[in-house]
């Protein structure tokens, strides 16, 4: 049985720590970031991305193609991914959007 598994267990960091630090510092509540905190947040982010990729891989019948649709499907279906629902919405066509608006009674936008 084949499985998609990035090599993250050796202690090395894949994501650029400077970028992670920049994102962390964008929070107004963050004043300083220790080296250890930066390492562990970076590593936790890598593990999260690995878990997300594994979920997508398994839900797409072990396809080696990572797509937005696969990501959006996981986010919409998984209770643990609900916090990403607004960030990764399921794509719909304009026609589907118009039908949703009609169902809600908002009519046409134009």
Short recap of the structure:
This protein is an all-alpha fold and 110 residues long. Helices cover 50% and strands 0% of the residues. α2 (35-59) packs across α3.
CATH superfamily: Histone, subunit A
Rounded to an integer in angstroms, the radius of gyration calculated over CA atoms is 19 Å
What is the name of the CATH class?
Answer: Mainly Alpha
Largest sheet: none
Structural class: mainly alpha
What would the principal axes of the Cα set say about the shape? Answer: flat
The CATH topology corresponds to Histone, subunit A
What does the secondary structure layout of this molecule look like, with pairings?
Elements: H1 17-25, H2 35-59, H3 68-77, H4 94-104
Keywords: Nucleus
GO cellular component, one term: CHRAC
Pfam family, one: CBFD_NFYB_HMF
